[in-house]
Design goal:
Helix content is 25%, strand content 32%. By secondary structure, the protein is of the alpha+beta class.
Length: 106
């Protein structure tokens, strides 16, 4: 379960938070990548029609083997309609590690 709190501090522009979680093994290699989670859009401080802060909960499920091997989580966040090119490339590089680690289990 992922419990998020988002808050927009901009007076005029809203916040469209996106979150992706990468599970890492003891050697720092990515062994699982969550789906991208899209938080509820938060309005700017001067927007009287949309709350500027709030919580969202998401259910994510990794394979049991990931749960057994994971020692830490890396959380990526962005305020866009996606992860953004730089952050997405970072996640994809972790995904290459995931494929290599999963090959050991297959």
């Amino acid at each position: 379960m992922v419990d998020t709190f988002t808050e927009c501090n901009n007076k005029f522009h809203g916040l469209r938070a996106r979150i992706t979680i990468v599970a890492l093994d003891g050697r720092g290699r990515a062994i699982g990548v969550s789906q991208e989670m899209s938080c509820t859009t938060r309005g700017g401080i001067l927007d009287i029609f949309s709350p500027s802060s709030g919580r969202d909960k998401f259910a994510q499920k990794f394979p049991e083997s990931v749960g057994e091997e994971a020692t830490s989580l890396e959380i990526f966040q962005d305020d866009e309609t996606g992860m953004g090119a730089g952050k997405l490339l970072n996640v994809l590089n972790h995904a290459k590690d995931v494929r290599a680690v999963l090959a050991d289990f297959i």
